[in-house]
Design brief:
single chain; about 200 residues; alpha/beta; 5-stranded mixed sheet; two-stranded antiparallel sheet; 7 strands; about 30% helix
């Protein structure tokens, strides 16, 4: 008389012989394209302090076009605040963010407290774009975000330390730093405008 294993018994034997097939965890399985794309871009993998003292995760800006600027209140180029505010106001609904980082390393032209800077920016230039706590942007004391930015080889300014107030970096929606412009580059500069608008049009 022939005997046959039941389906349940057969499954039990298979599990004994091939236990690793059942124990394979989700972490051990190959990452999907969706999981890989969720990784924070290197340029946004930093935390900074807002000018009000709050912790800000730059990853929260992912998906926007960013113009990052080191600013000062007593510089000959402080007038660029007006153009930065206009750039932000004209394009914010399309995903443009301006990030202002006050710095006192150039001619001591940003000597005030964060509260002083807020008062100056809002009263003189009606600034509504995001401002951050005063930082160093060059040398060994530079904040980590600026150490990363200034270490990149970018057009048209190149790599190396910030030279003066109001240098500008452009970061696209994917989190890639795509350009660096010097202090003397005005916000209506053809190359700057073209880069920003091209980044805004990309989805």
């Amino acid at each position: 008389m022939k005997s046959f294993l039941s389906p349940l018994a057969l499954l039990f034997i298979v599990n004994l012989v091939f236990p690793t097939a059942q124990l394979m965890s989700q972490e051990d399985s190959p990452k999907t394209e969706t999981q890989e794309s969720a990784k924070v871009p290197a340029a946004l993998d930093f935390h900074v302090k807002s000018i009000d003292g709050d912790d800000v995760n730059l990853a929260d800006y992912h998906g926007n076009v960013l113009v990052v600027v080191n600013v000062a209140s007593k510089c000959g180029y402080t007038r660029q605040y007006s153009d930065l505010q206009k750039l932000y106001a004209d394009n914010s609904e399309n995903g443009l963010k301006v990030l202002g980082f006050p710095c006192n390393q150039f001619g001591n032209q940003e000597p005030g407290s964060d509260a002083d800077i807020v008062e100056f920016c809002t009263s003189k230039f009606n600034v509504t774009f995001d401002m951050f706590s005063k930082v160093d942007v060059k040398g060994d004391s530079s904040c980590d975000f600026y150490k990363y930015l200034t270490g990149l080889e970018l057009e048209p300014k190149g790599t190396g330390d910030i030279g003066w107030n109001f240098e500008k970096f452009v970061i696209d929606r994917s989190g890639k730093v795509i350009g660096r412009f010097g202090t003397k580059t005005e916000l209506d500069d053809e190359a700057f405008v073209e880069m920003v608008q091209s980044a805004l049009s990309a989805r």
